[in-house]
Amino acid sequence: MQELQAIAVDGGGRQRCVNEHEFEEKKRVLRRINPESIRDALSKSCCNVNCLAEWSESDVRDLRCQSEGKGDQEWREHLAKMIGMHALDPNSVGCNSARSRLMVEQRPVCAKAFKKLYGISDHLWKAVLALSLDLRQERDAERVRVSQYVRHNDQ
Predict the structure, then answer these.
(1) What pLDDT score does 59 carry?
(2) What is the pLDDT of residues 50-61, one digit of tens each?
(3) Rounded distance, CA 88 to CA 102, Å?
(4) Which of the residues 23, 47, 103, 144 has the least number of beta carbons within 10 Å of its own beta carbon?
(5) Longest pairwise C-alpha distance within the chain
(6) Phi and psi of 108, rounded to 5°?
(7) If you average pLDDT over every residue of the chain, what do you get?
(8) Beta strands at 102-104 and 15-19: parallel, antiparallel or unpaired
């Protein structure tokens, strides 16, 4: 099967051919950083704390630009690691509990705000959460193996 080609303009104004997947990826990034999309995300309330209130359009654009150059799987892994590193309890990511808050740029946000800040869909959120839990289980299993090894060698 022949892959479709498209023309893209790089940062220096030069045209180059890109494959269909790369073109679609670029369109997704552009949609995420679209000012109208960002204003729409910030105009909605997320929870009773209203985590989104202190974020500016510039802040959100900077967060969303982190996806630039990342493929789908790499972007999912990036988000999953952020959740795993910054969630007090990744098993409870609702809006109603302080334990479910995520830290983004040293600011606590609820799960709904996290999704709005990064411009991710419910579908992507579910995949990212599943991946985050898998990564956490792998990390926990590794800790158990290390502690068993240390105990075994201390005897």
Answers:
(1) 93
(2) 889 989 999 999
(3) 7
(4) 144
(5) 66
(6) -75, 135
(7) 75
(8) unpaired
pLDDT at 116: 92
**pTM given for the model:** 0.67
The first and second tokens of residue 144, run together, are: 């158990």
**CB hemisphere CA count around 14 (13 angstroms):** 4
What's the token pair of residue 128? Answer: 């990212």
**DSSP per residue over the chain, as a string?**
-PPPEEEEE-TTS-EEEEEHHHHHHHHHHHHHT-HHHHHHHHHS--STT-GGGG--HHHHHHHHGGGTT--HHHHHHHHHHHHHHHBS-TT---SS-GGG-EEETTEEE-HHHHHHHHT--HHHHHHHHHHHHHHHHHHHHHHHHHHHHHHHHH-
Q: 59: which 2 tokens?
A: 């802040």
